[in-house]
Design brief:
alpha+beta; two-stranded antiparallel ribbon
């Protein structure tokens, strides 16, 4: 999951160290770090996200995602994929494009370096 500057700052304010939850890809884009096959914030005992109410915007938008061809799609691997209606899909698609544009600009201008 790609992260914008606001996502990172919000999670740091919660007491997390950036290096623990951010992985910077070869493309320079910061993403949530996985531990094994799970997101850093996944609570194995409770089987849910530890930061659900403060999760990154990409997680809020999910299962609406971007295909490798740049098309807004629903991730069919998500168990909730069939619950996304047309209006929700369109709204989340707009938010996703804006988020990805924001992240690209932040990487270009600030680098969003992982500490």
């Amino acid at each position: 999951m790609e992260l914008c500057k606001a996502d990172i700052a919000r999670l740091e304010r919660r007491g997390y160290e950036r290096a623990d939850f951010v992985h910077r890809g070869a493309d320079g884009i910061p993403r949530l770090r996985n531990t094994g096959e799970y997101c850093f914030f996944y609570d194995h005992e409770k089987k849910r996200c530890r930061e659900y109410s403060r999760r990154p915007l990409g997680c809020v938008i999910y299962p609406v995602n971007m295909s490798v061809d740049g098309e807004v799609v629903v991730d069919e691997l998500c168990p909730e994929a069939s619950s996304i209606g047309r209006d929700e899909f369109d709204g989340k698609g707009r938010r996703l494009r804006k988020l990805l544009d924001t992240i690209a600009l932040e990487v270009k201008t600030h680098g969003l370096r992982a500490k």
